[in-house]
Amino acid sequence: MTVRVTVAKGRVVRDQHGRKCPDGEFPVDEKDFFWSAHIRSGDLELVKPKVSDTAAAVPEPSNKVAVK
User: Fold this and answer.
1) Which pLDDT score, from 0 to 100, does residue 3 have?
2) What is the pLDDT of residue 29?
3) Would you state the pLDDT for residue 53?
4) What is the pTM of this model?
5) What dihedral angle (degrees, nearest 10) is formed by the CA atoms of 34, 39, 41, 44?
6) Domain ranges of the chain
7) Long-range residue pairs from 10-13, CB within 8 A, at least 24 positions apart, any chain
8) Reduced 3-state DSSP string for the chain
9) pLDDT tens digit string along 49-59?
C-alpha cells in the first residue's frame, strides 16, 4: 500500500540507490521492508491525507420511509 511520507526534521534519508530523499512529501510502499524500517525508526513521518470538500459534504442519511 502506498502512503505519503516526509523526512523527519533533522534527518537525512537515502533511498535504496543511495540518493537523498526529497524534503517534501513523496510516496513509498509501507509494506516494503526498507521503507517500513525508516517509518518505524522515525526517519520518515506519515502524512495525514487531506480531506477534500466533496468528502466533507456527504449528505446525512434520511430516516424517512419511501411510500408508494
Assistant:
1) 96
2) 97
3) 58
4) 0.70
5) 110
6) 2-48
7) 11/42, 11/43, 13/38, 13/43, 13/44
8) CEEEEEECCCCCCECCCCCECCCCCEEEECCCHHHHHHHHHCCEEECCCCCCHHHHCCCCCCCCCCCC
9) 887 655 556 66
